[in-house]
Amino acid sequence: MQLVLIGVGQAGGKIVDALLQRESADKTPFIREAVAINTAEQDLRGLDHVPEANRHLVGQSRVGGHGVGGDNELAAEIAQDERSELVRAIDVPATNVDAFLVVAGLGGGTGSGMSPVLVNELQRIHTEPIYGLGILPSEDEGGLYSLNAARSLRTLRREADNVVLIDNDAWRSSGESLGDAYESINREIARRLAVLFSAGELSQSDTVGESVLDASEIINTLRGGGVSALGYGSGKIDTDDSSGRLSGLLGSSTPSVDETTAVNLTMSTIRKAVRSQLSVPCDVASTGRALVLVSGPPAWLSRKGIERGRQWVEETTQCLEVRGGDYPLPESDHVAAVVLLSDVKESERLDQLEAVAADAQGEQETHENDGEVSGESLSDDKLDGLF
Ligand code: GDP
């Protein structure tokens, strides 16, 4: 699948950087163009992989290159005022593009406020689907971050064709500070997305999968809006049984690996992906559509294992639209599974985010009204979108 990536704000830019790095390591091109947009000059300078010509500083007349200080309303206003500059920034030569992906930390200012406006603008100009990749703030970051994220997400969901969510708390090791975790979280995001979006693209090894998933199947899984979670599981291939690896290295897809071993490894990585490694905690039984993609050396990619895994996802998610496929990685010593749960309707994590956000908005309103409490109960329906 060929994507145009647009990183907005600090987190958005750094994640696009991580994706570019991953793409060049994996040698399977899936990024047609990568752009970074920010109101903070320093954040743009800190990027390593986004080409200089594709880094755009906006809002200079309002904030002088110093960022919006967490004010996502100001960021949304700047984006509205500078729509024509934004259009120029994203007017990259993008032939043969399957979709656009706008990446942002939803709890901050620039990415949170600008990304929904940008998605709205891209929808106006392009016929390809426009997706969001939204980073939810950690619970430790407090009410203002949750309020920003909930308001941004509300607007982004309305504008985008789908929003894939990553919870900053989901893959953090216990005791690790959030700042220390960013790099590893970004690497994990890039690893998962690279497997997903490489599906159907030819790697330099030119090995083709047995059941290839192409761009249209990913697009069909994401169609119709809503939010999505990504799961990932991997299992190391037992090197004592090197036959499969060797045949994989030689480019042969002859299954010289014991089929039961391959089926079991495939099933356990798919289960792991859904049960323990979702990018945002959610009720998997509320999934609208799903996609299972298994990667590994060709000899370990068992058609039977993938079909059984696909059926298991169908039963577990109770949704009837589950696509499955494989992606050969001849030199890998792992079997890995990416599971995309699209249009997930129930998530306690999102309910809790909305509740914290509603409290924070209530406190803000009380403060603005000189301490007068309105007496109305605060429900998530009272949360305002950004525009
Ligand atoms: P902006 O530059 O104003 O858009 O603000 P940020 O992008 O820094 O957004 C702040 C939110 O993004 C907070 O919830 C941070 O925890 C999160 N964040 C900041 N940098 C990173 C990063 O590199 N990776 C991840 N995963 N989250 C980040």
Structural class: alpha/beta
Strand percentage, roughly? Answer: 15-25%
Q: How many strand elements? A: 10
Can you tell me the overall shape?
globular
Query: Can you count the helices?
Result: 13
What's the story with the biggest beta sheet? Answer: 10 strands, mixed
CATH homology group of the largest domain: Tubulin/FtsZ, GTPase domain
**Average pLDDT metric:** 90
Q: How far apart are the first and last residues' alpha carbons, in Å? A: 31 Å
Domain count: 3
Main location: cytoplasm
Family: Belongs to the CetZ family.
Subcellular location: Cytoplasm
Keywords: Cell shape, Cytoplasm, GTP-binding, Nucleotide-binding
Features:
binds guanosine-5'-diphosphate; alpha/beta; globular; 3 domains; 10-stranded mixed β-sheet; Rossmann fold; 60s Ribosomal Protein L30, Chain: A; 387 residues; 10 strands
Question: What do you see in this structure?
Answer:
With 387 residues, this protein is of the alpha/beta class. It has three domains: 3-198, 3-Layer(aba) Sandwich (Rossmann fold); 228-342, Tubulin/FtsZ, C-terminal domain (60s Ribosomal Protein L30, Chain: A), CATH 3.30.1330; 349-382, no CATH class. The protein is 43% helix and 18% strand. It contains 13 helices and ten strands. The chain has helices at 9-26, 41-45, 60-63, 72-81, 83-89, 110-125, 143-159, 178-198, 215-222, 243-249, 259-275, 303-317, 348-368; strands spanning 3-8, 31-38, 55-57, 99-105, 130-136, 162-167, 227-236, 289-296, 322-328, 334-342. The protein has a ten-stranded mixed beta sheet, sandwiched between helices. Helix 7 links the parallel strand 5 and strand 6. Helix 1 crosses helix 6 (110-125), helix 1 packs across helix 8 and helix 11 (259-275) runs parallel beside helix 12 (303-317). The radius of gyration is 21 Å and the shape is globular. The relative contact order is 0.13. The structure holds guanosine-5'-diphosphate. The site of guanosine-5'-diphosphate has 23 residues, from helix 1, helix 6 and helix 8.
